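Re: export button greyed out
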Amino acid sequence: MPELPEVETIARGLDKRVRGDVIDSVWLGKHREPFKSSPREIAAALPGTRIAEIRRVGKHIVFDLVRKTSRNGKVSMQWILHLGMTGRMLVCSPEEEIPKHTHAIATLSSGRELRFVDPRRFGRLSVATEQGFSGPGTEPLTVTAEEFAKLFHRRKTPIKAALLNQKLLHGVGNIYADESLFRAGIRPRRQAGRLTRAELDRLHGALKEVLREAIKLGGSSVSDYVDAEGREGFFQLQHRVYLRTGKPCLACKTPIKRLVLGGRGTHYCPKCQR
DNA sequence: ACTATGTCCTGCGAGC
DNA sequence: TGCTCGCAGGACATAG
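Workaround output, generated via the alternate export path:
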């Protein structure tokens, strides 16, 4: 389940390994779901471009691409990738077996391949020619306490649902929403607009803290998440509430409760979170 | 303008 | 053992 820390880890790994390489050709599978831009558009845009940089924006991985024109000019474009629930972008050698659910392969000048594999097909690939893809919302790692508080002003929706709303903050998913609410001592069902400024400040701090710690540990491997090198993360060992239903709270030993909020499993400590 | 709900998709585990 | 069934979840469309 790639959220901000997992996507950051993958983007860093990809940048380290394939930055500067050139996309020679692209193969796209027959399923249509993985392609937000038309397959024709993607296949026309990518070949012949050099990968200038790979970075994370929200839960998106952005490949900044450059193509040299005949008159010594440069054309910039972007290859934008969302991993959905089960998406992986792997750097492989062409000899490696192609796994089931491989939807796209980019062959690189170095002889390697970039492979997009996604069993559940919630992931999306797209290309953009306009500059500066910035995602739908605000970056949680750089937002100020003031801006953070303003995002939730007068909102009637539960704070957990607001944290997951990518138009407000982008990059926060189910794991880090639950973990940051626990650290801030706030119940997931509380109305976002009714939180005090002190509570919002605690949540702002807790969210940044939990995201930074998770990035340090290479993200959380819960279902089948692995980074660009195929390695698992270790932050799942630090989870205090997520998927710990019935287990004792690490702060007060009260059993962790689970409820469904906005269709998502939600975990919290009834004593520590008010 | 917000908010809530249904939909997409496969793999996995529970239950018989 | 082997089958069916229900469920998980991010983003988006649609309805209220």
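The radius of gyration of chain A is 20 Å. The button fix ships in the next patch.
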